[in-house]
Amino acid sequence: MFSLEVPANELLLLKIATGDELAFRQLFLEFAPQINARLSRLLPNRTVVEDIIQETFLRVWLHRDQLHKIQQWQSWILRIAYNRAFTYLRDRAIHQRSLEKIKVTENEDHTQQAVDLRNLKQTIAQAVAQLPPQQKKIYQLSREQGLMIAEISDRLDLSPQTIKNTLGLALKSIRHFLETKGHFVASVALAYLY
Q1: Residue 161's closest CA among 150, 170, 172, 171?
Q2: N or C, where is the chain less crowded by C-beta within 10 Å?
Q3: Cα–Cα nearest to 119, from 192, 181, 40
Q4: Over the stretch 118-139, which tens digit does the pLDDT of each residue have?
Q5: Tell me, what DSSP letter sits at residue 63?
Q6: How far is CA 52 from CA 12, 87, 98, 192, in A?
Q7: What is the pLDDT of residues 41-71, one digit of tens each?
Q8: Using an 8 Å Cβ cutoff, are 2 and 34 in contact?
């Protein structure tokens, strides 16, 4: 089955089975290039191929006591290498599908968040539109134009306390409107933010 001659005699396998590191090194040096050539056709990444070869021979070393019982030991070692390669490919495919699924989910989440935010803004705009004129004006100056209480007071020629009270009533009305439209969390946030 293999074109490369590997020292397959019983003596080499017995030496490896007893823990002879030099015999194991000889096996590695002669057989690893053949595994490398075969795996390189499957896996384009040289580092991955080298890692799989290392894992393969680590498994051979860990199960060296079984080597003398195995008749087709070259096929056995090659099967270990192929199994590791296929496991790598399977894990990589699963990982890739997971990343794609996460990306799709994130895109869906962002899309849903954008829709939710747009709906919330529309609901707030509806709530503001229903405010009495003075509350609406003070709310817009405060929240939409970013003016401070003192600036609104100067602009409208009203006391700062009147501005605070009117803004408080406007926010209370907006919170109530949001709750009736099912935006309870937004209404709670509005209560704490303002």
Answers
A1: 150
A2: N
A3: 181
A4: 777 888 888 889 989 998 898 8
A5: T
A6: 23, 10, 23, 57
A7: 888 788 889 999 999 999 999 988 887 788 7
A8: yes
The CA-based angle 154-157-162, given to 5 degrees, is: 95
Helix, coil or strand: residue 52: helix
Which residue shows structure tokens 């074109």?
3
| Candidate CATH numbers 1.20.120, 1.10.150, 1.10.10, 3.40.1130; the one for domain 130-193 | 1.10.10
Pair of tokens at residue 55: 């894992």
9 vs 124: CA distance, rounded Å: 84
Could you tell me where in the chain the CATH 1.10.1740.10 domains are found?
Answer: 10-97
Give the per-residue pLDDT at 146.
Answer: 81
Pairwise CA distance, residues 12 & 67, whole Å: 10
Q: Mean pLDDT check: name the lowest of 19-33, 89-103, 165-179.
A: 89-103
- For 10-97, CATH number out of 1.10.1740.10, 3.10.450.50, 3.40.50.2300, 1.10.357.140 equals 1.10.1740.10
Q: Which two tokens stand for residue 103?
A: 């990306």
Q: Which two tokens stand for residue 66?
A: 């079984």
Dump pLDDT digits (tens) for 176-186: 887 887 765 54
